[in-house]
Amino acid sequence: MKSFIDEFKAFAMKGNVIDLAVAVVIGAAFGKIVSSLVNNIIMPLIGVLLGGIDFSGMAAQIGDVSITYGVFLQSVIDFIIVAFVIFLVVKAINKAQELGQEEDGVVEEKVVEPSEEVKLLREIRDTLRR
User: How confident is the model at residue 19 (pLDDT cuts 50, 70, 90)?
Assistant: First the structure.
C-alpha cells in the first residue's frame, strides 16, 4: 500500500501539475505586464479622450465610506484586455498547430454522417445477410 507521501509525490510530479504551475507563474507575470499597459498607457489615453478624466480617482463618498468605483472600472478594462489577448494567443496557437498538422500530413478527415437512405440500405443489407 502506498503511503500518503508517496501518493502526493506521484501527484505533484505528473506533467499536468507541473504544466499548470508554470502556466500560473507565467500568467501572473503576464498579468503584471497587461496591468502596466492598462494603467500607464490605455487608461491615460481614455482619460484624455474623455476630457482629462482620471478613472483611478473616481469615487463616491457615502457617509464615512469612500466607494472607489474608478478602480473597479479600471479593473474591468484590465480584465477585458487580458481576456482578449489570451483569446488571440490561444487562437494563434491553434492555427499554428493546424498548420503543423497539415505539413506533417496528419490532417483529420471530417466524418460525414451517412444519409437516412444509406442507413436504411445498410440495415436492409445486414438483415439479408443473416
Answer: confident
